[in-house]
Every structure is written in C-alpha cells, then in structure tokens.
C-alpha cells in the first residue's frame, strides 16, 4: 500500500529561505491595515487572531470575519483592488507573514502545491461567505450565535470541547450575528444552563453538542 501523501504545509513553504517576505508583529487591538489603505500585499496569519471589519458610508461598522492561524488575508490585492476593502485588527498578540503582491503572483504561477492550497482556502472562504449570507437571511439569532461560536472554536477539528478566545466580547458577537448585546447575553446564559458552553479562568469552552441548536428545526 503506497504511503499516504502528507498535506502541503503552507507556513513551512512561506517561511523557507529565498522568498521575499517579512514577518510583522502586532499587539492586541493594533491595526494591521485599514479600509482604504493601499492593497499591495497578501498576508498569512502565523500566530494569534485577526478580526476583519468594514465601515459603511454612514459610519456603521460591521464584523465580517474572524481569522485564525493558517488563514490568508488581503487577497484582494490579487484581484486588482487598489485599496483595502476592510480593516484588519489583531485580537491578541499576532504575527503575520507579509508577501508582496508580485511575489505572491509568481508563487501561484510557479508553485502548484502552494497554488492548490491557496485556491482551496479561497473556495472555503467563499463557501463560508455564502453560508453566512444564508445564516443571516433565514436563521434566528440564537442559531446564528451557536454557529458563530462553533466556527470560532474551529468545530470539526476534533470532537473535544474547545476554547474560544477570551477577547471575543459579547458586543463583538452581537455585531457578527446582527443582534443586540442583551440578546447575546440571554442566549449565552441559556447555552450555559444546557451545558453547551462553560466559563472558567481560561475563557469560554464550547461543547460540540452546541451543534444541536444549529441543526434543530
């Protein structure tokens, strides 16, 4: 039986000598790039966490994504966007690999394994955006909160309870699902009483059984 092929390690590839890139570090709440900044690079989240937000013409801000290690950001540079369409902020001490736009284009053209990994990332991101839209249109705020908590806990990586970053506030969760902080507080208390989540000194623990809220009609 042939040996199983190991999955492509994007981080190891990007950190290999010879590639034109730099490592940037940020403290919690630092702005990595702002909406309207020049869009001249693609970034790979090495450690930490990042929140993406957009601000409307009327000044209203909305959270559109929360990124974890292994995610890319700033992909709009490859689509020809001259400026950033969102703001990226660190939610904890964070390191990113910054790859200039031209270097990234060459990598995608010449390195097939890396190109496959990047395309898979983009397809997954698009599927997530579509699922988010369906979630907003058809699901209750209780289901949207349960789904968001499971996504933040990286549900599906294993079947053990996982922690959500303690820096994710009820206000942020309310922005992400389109409801009020008081409603988020109400549902979190409900989930806790049902044993779906737990609080301790390390933060918020999500039990995979929370999925029952999402799939229940």
Helix and strand layout, with pairings?
Layout: H1 10-14, E1 22-26, E2 31-33, E3 41-47, E4 50-55, E5 61-67, E6 72-73, E7 87-90, E8 94-100, H2 101-110, H3 112-138, H4 141-152, E9 162-164, H5 170-177, H6 181-193, E10 197-200, E11 203-206, H7 211-215
Antiparallel strand pairs: 1-8, 2-7, 3-6, 3-8, 4-5, 4-7, 9-11, 10-11
Helix pairs in contact: 2-3, 4-5, 5-6
- CATH architecture annotation name of the largest domain: Sandwich
Distance between the termini: 45 Å
Q: Tell me, what is the CATH class of the largest domain?
A: Mainly Beta
Order of helices and strands: HEEEEEEEEHHHEHHEEH
Low-confidence stretches: none
Give the helix level as a range of percent: 25-40%
CATH topology name of the largest domain: Jelly Rolls
Strand portion, in percent?
15-25%
- Read across the widest sheet, the strand sequence of neighbours is 1-8-3-6
Mean pLDDT figure: 82
What's the tally of helices?
A: 7
Radius of gyration equals: 19 Å
Q: How would a textbook summarize the main sheet?
A: 4 strands, antiparallel
User: What is the CATH homologous superfamily assignment of the largest domain?
Assistant: Jelly Rolls
Dominant shape: globular
Classification by helices and strands:
alpha+beta
Describe the fold and architecture.
This protein has 217 residues and is α+β, with helices and mostly antiparallel strands. It is built from 7 helices and 11 strands. The strands form 3 sheets. Strands 1-8-3-6 form a 4-stranded antiparallel beta sheet. Helix 4 (141-152) crosses helix 5. It is globular and about 55 Å long.
